[in-house]
Amino acid sequence: MDERRAAAYWERNAETWTLLVRQGFDVYRDQVNTPAFLAALPDVSGLRGLDVGCGEGHNTRLLRERGAQMTGLDVSTVFLRAAAGAETSAARIRYLGGSATRLPFSPATFDFVTAFMSLMDLPDQQTAIVEAFRVLRPGGFLQFSITHPCFGTPHRRLLRDAEGMAYAVELGRYFDTKDGRIERWLFGAAPPAMKQGLAPFEIPVFHRTLSDWLNAISRAGFILEYTGEPYADDETARRFPNVQDTQVVSYFLHLRCRKPATA
Q1: At the fourth CATH level, which superfamily is domain 3-258?
Q2: Dmax over Cα atoms in the chain, in whole Å?
Q3: Around Cβ 69, how many Cβ atoms within 10 Å?
Q4: Residues contacting 166, CB < 8 A, separation 6+
Q5: How would you write the pLDDT of the chain (263 residues) with one tens digit per residue?
Q6: Terminal CA-to-CA distance of the chain, rounded, Å?
Q7: Are strands 201-205 and 48-52 parallel, antiparallel or unpaired?
């Protein structure tokens, strides 16, 4: 599957995705993944930032609230309209359509680049990382989150005990990197009445191994400086039972890598 076809899936997903996330049904993002990502983020106040795969702009706005001068980029016009429509701050975010593999910016334009759960949705992840390196100033950083490659394998089955508590995950086909498998789902936290009549998301999957990701970072010229594997604490799992399974294995992997100051 090429990038254009993958982007078409996201254009179709975007309206329903925006509807559900803005009502708080992406609890894995809101209660686990994004808080951990922001906790690990260096101070970005006053810096120029690019958010690649910004979607409807939720996380881009959080970066703006931390004082960054933000640009958001996405392939979906539906997402971009939703993101621009949510702008109320005088420090407006600039939203642009474009591909992560062909960033429409000059070299050394940004102090940092983020990608929240977007790079794993690209057929050509290596080129996207190289492009992030290109548009960063020397000494800048790329921080991104992805589905954890070790625990988001093509075969995956969550196991629950008699009380419904997750206790293990059955995994397989880790080295199967055939592109274009389609996963169909909606957010589990959304009530059945809300999901009634909504078509499931269709997500193209481009699975890579952990070594594939680490080698892509190294080949681009980055130096890896931080890794994170977030999970819900006991209080969060009690308040939001849907995320209890993040305590069994890590669903997300966070990586921050630095462009050398002499690059």
Answers
A1: Vaccinia Virus protein VP39 (3.40.50.150)
A2: 57
A3: 18
A4: 158, 159, 160, 244, 245, 247, 248
A5: 999 999 999 999 999 999 999 999 999 999 999 999 999 999 999 999 999 999 999 999 999 999 999 999 999 999 999 999 998 876 789 999 999 999 999 999 999 999 999 999 999 999 999 999 999 999 999 999 999 999 999 999 999 999 999 999 999 999 999 898 999 999 999 999 999 999 999 999 999 999 999 999 999 999 999 999 999 999 999 999 999 999 999 999 999 999 999 86
A6: 34
A7: unpaired
pTM assigned to the model: 0.96
Non-local CB neighbours of 39 within 8 Å, separated by 6+ positions: none
Q: Where are the domains of the chain?
A: 3-258
**Rounded-to-integer distance, Cα 91 and Cα 142, Å:** 23
